[in-house]
Amino acid sequence: MRFLLNQNFSSVDLGEINPNMTVLEWLRSNQLVGSKEGCASGDCGACTAVVGELVANNKTTEIKYKSINTCIALAYSLIGKHLVTVEGLAEGDRLHPVQNAMVLENGSQCGFCTPGFVMSLFALYHNENKTNLAKINEALSGNLCRCTGYKPIISAAFLAINKKNKEPLDFYKKNQKQLKEALVKLSDPKNISVSFAKGEKIINYDAPSNLEELSKVLSNNSSAKIVAAGTDLNLEITQSMKEFPHLVSVNRVPELKSISDNGADLEIGAAVSYEDAASILIGYWPDLDSFLQRFASLPIKNWATIGGNIANASPIGDMPPVLIALDAKLKLRKGSKVRIINLEEFFISYKKTSLDESEFIESIIVPKPNDNERLITHKISKRYEDDISAVCMALKVTTKGSHPESVKIALGGMSGIPQRAIELEKVMLENWNNDEIVAASYNALKSEFSPFSDVRASSEYRLRVTANLVKKSLLILKGLPLENLAHYSVASKL
Ligand SMILES: Cc1cc2nc3c(=O)[nH]c(=O)nc-3n(C[C@H](O)[C@H](O)[C@H](O)COP(=O)(O)OP(=O)(O)OC[C@H]3O[C@@H](n4cnc5c(N)ncnc54)[C@H](O)[C@@H]3O)c2cc1C
Ligand code: FES
Ligand code: FES
Fold first, then answer.
1. In 257-312, where do the E strands start and end?
2. Residue ranges of domains in the chain, CATH in brackets
3. pLDDT in tens, 227-241
4. 8-state DSSP, 78
5. Mean pLDDT over the full length of the chain
6. Which of 35, 37, 110 to mutate to test the pocket of ligand 3 (most atoms within 8 A of CB)?
């Protein structure tokens, strides 16, 4: 149960801990109190730290550092990795260049959020040699400031990174080789199985290291809960005070962490991080880029998995509508039995899926696009960054000449499940050149969907905005300007 911590080359033992314990709790109970608890739900960034993992890069292996929210990551997820917290930045009396820049630019404001900001900047400093405002905004997308503003922090980011090449290397660059060796020593291919005694209760944790063992553990423990990154599941621990009696991690199974390409399809392992899956998908569907940037914040993207985004069966998850529109399939496994189903058949009702007891998602199979296919995606949310969708729309159009041959539309936020919009597909095909398409779309949506009203949007808003998105999609597909979109607004046509 060992991992590397800050500037130590010798590993640290997590000790006998409850498998439900988060990284933040572990840190704070071990006198590392720089990381703060603001929200305990991945929303504020006060708990941000950086995790380094060995990754293969061409023929070499290197350590990749990324920011995470320690409040919703399980302490056991650190095994074999390198955790850098704000306590690990300065070398003796010498501040790290990002800390120094924060001092010089007056970036330390309320103080409570500062360690989190510093750690997000540290990850950026480590990964970039040159920066720009877009990269800085992305790096800080998970850090909220409600007291003063972001300007001094952004200035600190520019200062630290622009001066980087003129300054001595920081501890982690200087000692890359030793840190890598220490991590290699920690790479243990054995299965992890822990039983923690809490009074009369035993709390179990398994982290199998291959597919066969994962299948076996789940088959033998049908009530065990699968945890991938835990960015969704662990909120039950930190917000609902739930304690899982048996957790099974899928994160050490190489088969679930790989991406393969058989020519016609991409097969993305369920435990591939959102960030890695996104970079592959954007290569084939460039229009996805701006949509995927809207997913959560960088620390969540870095940690969350694509399988978790599907298996949590949230009606407002961002990937399911996209993947349904792309005709994705799921490879599900139970023991040695494998079945492949269309993603749209996976969702049964609110938070209910077609997964059988002990069955899990092994991978997601996504057909590669043909030349005449185009994917358009929209996310409607109150905030641009780090916000869950009120409505999400994905639409794949296959064209023949200048005309559509087929359209596949999937919607999030419009019912209890991510759902295909079959009536809307017909309307879009029939009204390709009709100015009344917004009203026709609205009527089709109303006949097929009864959206809920909640804090994010009312039922009526959801219907109207989706009808308007059909028109917007059409203008995008035809390459027409979007400036006059308001003219088509559903309000003026109904
Ligand atoms: C601050 C914040 C912002 C967020 N923003 C967004 C957003 O913009 N868009 C969005 O879509 N989501 C968002 N989320 C939700 C969440 O981050 C994603 O759904 C994420 O992809 C879940 O993946 P995970 O690996 O963390 O899943 P986990 O939390 O580990 O698991 C989620 C569920 O899936 C099950 N599960 C996981 N893997 C498997 C598997 N292989 N087989 C079977 N079951 C499995 C688990 O048992 C659990 O029930 C946000 C979350 C937070 C905290
Ligand atoms: S404490 Fe707010 S993101 Fe972790
Ligand atoms: S820096 Fe903490 S609220 Fe602004």
1. 259-261, 265-269
2. 2-186 (3.10.20.30), 192-249 (3.30.43.10), 256-367 (3.30.465.10), 373-493 (3.30.390.50)
3. 999 999 999 999 999
4. G
5. 93
6. 110
